[in-house]
Amino acid sequence: MVQGSCFCGTVRYQASGPFDSMISCHCSMCRKHHGAAFATYVATPLDGFRWVQGEDALLRYQSSPHSARNSCSVCGSTVPTVLEAHALAVLPAGALEGELGIRPQAHIFVGSKAPWYTITDDLPQHCENPPEFATPGLSRPEIKARPGITEGSCLCGAVAYEAAGDALFMQNCHCLRCRRARGAAHGTNLFYKDTQFRWLRGGEWVGEYKLPEARFYTTAFCRQCGAAVPRVSSDRGIVVIPAGGLDTDPPLRPQRHIFTHHKAAWFEITDPLPQFADAPPAI
Ligand SMILES: [Zn+2]
Ligand SMILES: [Zn+2]
Ligand SMILES: [Zn+2]
Prior knowledge:
The protein has helices at residues 28-34, 176-182, and strands at residues 2-5, 12-15, 21-25, 39-45, 49-53, 58-64, 67-72, 78-79, 81-83, 88-92, 96-97, 106-108, 149-153, 160-164, 169-173, 187-193, 197-201, 206-210, 218-222, 231-233, 238-242, 257-258. By secondary structure, the protein is mostly beta strands. It has 2 domains: 2-112, Metal Binding Protein, Guanine Nucleotide Exchange Factor, Chain A, CATH 2.170.150.70; 149-262, Metal Binding Protein, Guanine Nucleotide Exchange Factor, Chain A (Beta Complex). It is globular and about 50 Å long. The site of one zinc ion has 5 residues, from helix 1.
């Protein structure tokens, strides 16, 4: 039995498998929803899936005529989507605990991949959707060019933002908090000073959830679509931008992996970036 939970613990679920499909999707919708470089999903038969708690707290967003995406309405974490027509539940793998008995099998929609992310493993790559998935392909989103400006938005478009000038740093975080909040293998965050950042629209749609026991860790999300959006931390004078939401090519590339000691068992780091088992050295 595999268990999963959102970041705040309101939504919990379990699945008994069997798990025979595990795919990493690079489409812009998945990237925006999760706020991550890509989203990895495990499909499971619906009859072995159940919501343990929090089904009434789901935020459901119809992202296309064919699919809806679920988030926790309290913390914005990506949570499973139920596909009744296919008798399947699709689980965001980053939030799962327990041995799946399966590893990622392929990358899909690499034609829409983030320009700042390089795939370094040797799994098969499909430009759009492999033939066994019946959903229609998505067009490649246009990457805007705005020299000196990094711009991003949520999945529904209600929230948009920009940051000006040089970024401070960019890193991949494998901690359980990031994995639950993003529902992905790892978070990838871009950091700026808060004075470099502004909301272009939709600031009133931004929901936040701070973990009671955490010193700083707070998630920010669009309350309409559940997508990860930047978190402005005025205490620290920084803004943390979930890189999956970016609409422009940022000035940095991921520089390191942190909290690799807490990495998902099914995810293998195959790039040459420096790895830190726990917190990174002081910036
Ligand atoms: Zn939650
Ligand atoms: Zn996708
Ligand atoms: Zn939105």
